[in-house]
Amino acid sequence: MYVVIRKFRSMRSMPEAVRRAESGIGQMLRQSPGFQEYHVFDCGNGVGGSITLFDDRDTALAANEKALIWIRASLADLVQGEPEITAGEVLVTLKP
C-alpha cells in the first residue's frame, strides 16, 4: 500500500474546500485504478490536508498528478500556493 499526504497552508475556507473535494477530487479518485481511501482533515488556523491510500506507488503517483491539476483548477481561490506533498510505502497498518 502507498500513501500520499497533501498539506495545505493558508486556506480561506475549509468547509468550502471540503465541499468541493467531496464532489470533485473525491469522485475522480474513486475512479482511479488502485484507489483505496481518501481522507480530508482540518488542523485549524487555515491549515488542512488530505491522505490518500493506493495499492501501489505507480497508481498513487499517477492519481496525484491528476489531483494536483484538479487542485490548481478548483481550489485556487481558497488555497495559497502548492500543497506540501509527502508520499511513501505504508509499512504498518493497525485497525481495531
Please give a quick description of this structure.
By secondary structure, the chain is α+β, with helices and mostly antiparallel strands. The chain has helices at 14-23, 25-30, 57-74, and strands at 2-8, 35-44, 47-54, 84-89. A 4-stranded antiparallel beta sheet has the order 2-3-1-4.
Written account of the structure:
- The mean pLDDT is 93.
- A hairpin with a 2-residue loop joins strand 2 and strand 3.
- The chain is globular, with a radius of gyration of 13 Å.
- With 96 residues, the protein is of the alpha+beta class.
- Strands 2-3-1-4 form a four-stranded antiparallel beta sheet.
- The protein has helices spanning 14-23, 25-30, 57-74; strands at residues 2-8, 35-44, 47-54, 84-89.
- The two termini are 18 Å apart.
Gap between N and C termini: 18 Å
Structural class: alpha+beta
Low-confidence stretches: none
Biggest sheet strand order reads: 2-3-1-4
Number of helices: 3
Order of helices and strands: EHHEEHE
Task: Jot down its keywords.
3 helices; 96 residues; 4-stranded antiparallel β-sheet; alpha+beta
